[in-house]
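hey so i finally got around to running the thing on that chain from the lab meeting. sorry it took forever, my laptop kept dying and i had to restart like 3 times. anyway pasting the input first so we r on the same page abt which one it is
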Amino acid sequence: MSLQTRYDFTLPRGYVDANGQVHRNGTMRLATARDELEPLRDPSVQGPDDPRLTVLVLARVVERLGALELVTTYEIEGLFAADLAFLQDFYGVINFGSQDEYEALLEAQERSGPLPGTVPVVAVADVGPAVPAAAFSGGDEPEDETSALSMPAVVSGRTYQPSSRAGVEEIPNGGR
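ok and heres what got predicted. didnt touch it at all, straight out
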């Protein structure tokens, strides 16, 4: 039996790069102790409750995002809030959860489909920032504002409900 150390994911909205290209599919590897400890030494981190810690840890474990082979803190900081929340939950499930929780997370995402307002992004040269394709096609925004991250899934008798925690789980100071 081999240990799975890399997991593919699909972001609910996707990272939009400087060229307007949307990157939704990626790969995250299991975190090591070093991945959680090294960011605590970063001078920009004020302590284990600092939200920046989440960004630093995710930049270490997200190996690929769409066509981007190198994912840095810049890309993680540029994610939409729904995508950051998804990656936090994904990190927690693959590192600390069970197989049932992992399967429930994937099923919840598959059942819910893309988030409302998720449309292809078209870059318009020399006019300004990327513009949703719906702006050109006359497409209407969906009326259902239910977030994919708020929809629970039931797999093998277990319910997966994404957390609303503010960061990646850290080791409490008193536990060292």
